[in-house]
């Protein structure tokens, strides 16, 4: 049975800059934090709401008195869009059973969701949850954003897998975002 390759970096430790471009990207930072929070909750067994609260209090935003701003390498996302972060985490958890079913169907036949690298599984769950949000950005934007996040953690092969799975889900969940091919 094939497995996705291990992340390039230690889980939860992306580069010390926002994914993609060098400028502040609050929505991308929120997606990165959501992937980290989902990973942390699954690996530690902590309740997702408790992890969400920890992230809001200690990792997102400017931080409290006496806290250093830190950056991505320190596990912080000071510029993250906190409402988007919370919405993605909550939707991922609330809809996890259905999301996992869709992901299992979108994965190549010999790949099992439970055998995927846990960070890749968290990224796919977050991406699927956001694709289910009818008021979200266009599907291609969501896919590209999660690929930016994925490139911070994964090899090219795992990033291609994430792209393929998210593209399949996007075409299923948001067919209107993909014009029909001319006859």
Total strands: the figure is: 0
Poorly predicted sequence stretches spanning 5 or more consecutive residues: 1-23
Tell me the number of helical segments per DSSP (H or I, 4 or more residues long). 7
Q: CATH topology, what is it called?
A: N-utilizing Substance Protein B Homolog, Chain A
Secondary-structure element order, as H and E? HHHHHHH
Inertia-based shape: globular
Largest sheet: none
Which value, in Å, is the CA radius of gyration? 16 Å
Span from first to last CA? 39 Å
Work out the strand percent: under 5%
CATH level 1 name: Mainly Alpha
| Category from helices, strands and their pairing | mainly alpha
Mean pLDDT: 82
The CATH homologous superfamily is termed NusB-like
What's the CATH architecture?
Answer: Orthogonal Bundle
How much helicity do the residues have? 40-55%
Give the total of domains: 1
């Amino acid at each position: 049975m094939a497995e996705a390759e291990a992340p390039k970096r230690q889980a939860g430790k992306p580069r010390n800059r926002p994914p993609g471009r060098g400028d502040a990207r609050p929505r991308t930072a929120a997606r990165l934090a959501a992937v980290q929070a989902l990973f942390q909750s699954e690996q530690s067994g902590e309740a997702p709401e408790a992890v969400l609260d920890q992230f809001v209090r200690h990792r997102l935003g400017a931080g409290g008195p006496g806290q250093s701003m830190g950056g991505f390498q320190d596990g912080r996302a000071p510029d993250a869009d906190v409402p988007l972060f919370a919405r993605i985490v909550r939707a991922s958890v609330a809809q996890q059973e259905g999301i996992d079913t869709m992901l299992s169907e979108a994965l190549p036949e010999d790949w099992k969701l439970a055998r995927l690298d846990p960070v890749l599984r968290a990224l796919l769950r977050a991406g699927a949850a956001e694709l289910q949000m009818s008021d979200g950005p266009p599907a291609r934007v969501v896919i590209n954003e999660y690929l930016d996040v994925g490139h911070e953690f994964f090899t090219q092969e795992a990033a291609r897998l994430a792209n393929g799975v998210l593209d399949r889900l996007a075409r299923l969940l948001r067919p209107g975002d993909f014009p029909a091919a001319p006859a």
